[in-house]
Amino acid sequence: LFANVFNEQLMPYQQESIIKIGSNENPHGPGMAAKKAMIEAVSGSNRYPWDVTTILREKIGKQFNLKKENVVIGAGSSELLGVVSTWAALQKGTVLSPDPTFRLWIPAAKRLGLDVKLLPLTTGKAIDLNTVNNAIDSKTKLIYICNPNNPTGTVIPPATLETFIKNTPKQTTILLDEAYTEFSNEPSMAHLVNEYPNLVVAKTFSKAYGMAGARVGYVLAHADTAKQLSDLQPWANAGASAVSLAGAVASIDDPSFIAFCKQENIKARQVFYDALNEHQIPFITSHTSFVYFDTSGYSKDFRSVLESSNIFGARTFEDGTKWLRLSIGTVSEMQAVAKALKS
Ligand code: PLP
After folding, report:
1. pTM metric for this prediction
2. Confidence grade of residue 17 (pLDDT, cut at 50, 70, 90)
3. Where in the chain is the domain with CATH 3.90.1150.10?
4. 79, 69, 91, 77: which is closest to 221 by C-alpha?
5. Percent of the chain whose pLDDT exceeds 90
6. How high does pLDDT run on average in the chain?
7. How many helices (H) and strands (E) does the chain have?
8. Boundaries of CATH 3.40.640.10 in the chain?
9. Confidence of residue 130 (pLDDT cuts 50, 70, 90)
């Protein structure tokens, strides 16, 4: 019954003939274990899910050799990017961010009175921590670093990032957004949070875990920092539903699903790379579930070519350029992209 009602209502969004690859959603998720846990959790939704929240915080902490006191849960990591901006805005000052990057938190930061300074990437579209370092002054309250970066897909070498974290003044918070780390081969920087109370690492169940619609994210921070952040939530750690939390707990216990998604992403990404190469469209090697590429030498309108085959999602993040980002779908979805480009 559920399936029928649901499918009918969602029909316009789930037509099989439409391929949606614009928001870096995982085309495979949620995993079976998460789905089962979420279905079972529906009937417990009359209760507040404190116990599950605690279990999830403990499990997340354990994954990074940390404690539940180091973990703050939110309704997606975007809620927590907002909380960190609010925290930074308690004192007037500036925010630094390489750009283009994930900009969702920027309008709120500006409204909160922070002066947001965007810093250019290198010519190879990588984040240049020297540029960021040179821009730090006594007014810098917050530095946002998305690693791997969205939309460019580049990753900062771990030793370089670690040195940057160590050398950043203690009064400046570093918000390190690791939404896509699971797709890269580089480690999380979460092991540094106890040593550096000015480091906040944001992570999510929306990408590799395939639970974007469930809305569960978290930050890892020194316990004192984590407490200050959760104090700014109307109800600490209580943004995600009982159903979503149960799915998150189950997916931590199912690492084979993440390994599967990572492998499939590599295969599907290669299909797209091959298509881009065939059409001589330059791209940045990606450490994520999306690819950034330059269509300025492509004779047709890339987006229109895909849209005429019912493939939606190619998006621009740099006005005045023809760089586009496309999310990686399943292997067969990326084969459909390749076919559309050939036609
Ligand atoms: N951070 C980055 C870099 C993202 O790309 C996204 C979503 O696309 C988010 C955070 C927000 O994710 P969520 O709020 O679903 O956890």
Report:
1. 0.95
2. confident
3. 2-29+255-342
4. 69
5. 94
6. 95
7. 12, 11
8. 32-252
9. very high
Fold of 32-252: Aspartate Aminotransferase; domain 2 (3.40.640)
| Residue 119 · residue 135 · CB < 8 Å | yes
Distance (Å) from CA 103 to ligand 1 centroid:
10
> From the CA of 218, how far away is ligand 1's center (Å)?
11
Mutate to test the pocket of ligand 1, among 26, 99, 102 (most ligand atoms within 8 A of CB): 102
Structure-token pair, residue 304: 């229109």
Per-residue tokens: 111: 């409204």
- Sheet with 199-204, strands from edge to edge, namely 71-74, 217-220, 199-204, 173-177, 140-146, 94-99, 115-120
Please tell me the distance between residue 179's alpha carbon and the centre of ligand 1 in angstroms: 6
Range 2-29+255-342 has CATH code 3.90.1150.10: yes
d(CA 146, CA 164): 14
Which ligand 1 atom sits closest to the C-alpha of 217? 16
* 78 Cα–ligand 1 center, Å: 6
Instruction: Give the binding-site residues of ligand 1, using a 6 Å CB cut-off.
Output: 24, 76-78, 102, 146, 150, 177, 179, 204, 206, 212, 217
Whole-number Å distance, alpha carbon 195 to ligand 1 midpoint, is 26
Supply φ then ψ for residue 280, to 5 degrees.
55, 45
Q: How far apart are CA 73 and CA 80, in angstroms?
A: 8
- Helical spans, DSSP H, in the chain: 2-10, 32-41, 50-63, 77-88, 106-111, 129-135, 158-167, 223-230, 242-252, 255-278, 302-307, 331-342
- Of ligand 1's listed atoms, the one at least distance from the Cα of 216 is 16
Instruction: Give the mean model confidence (pLDDT) for residues 165-190.
Output: 97
Sign of CA dihedral 98, 128, 262, 311: positive
Looking at the predicted structure, is the pLDDT value of residue 1 above 50?
A: no
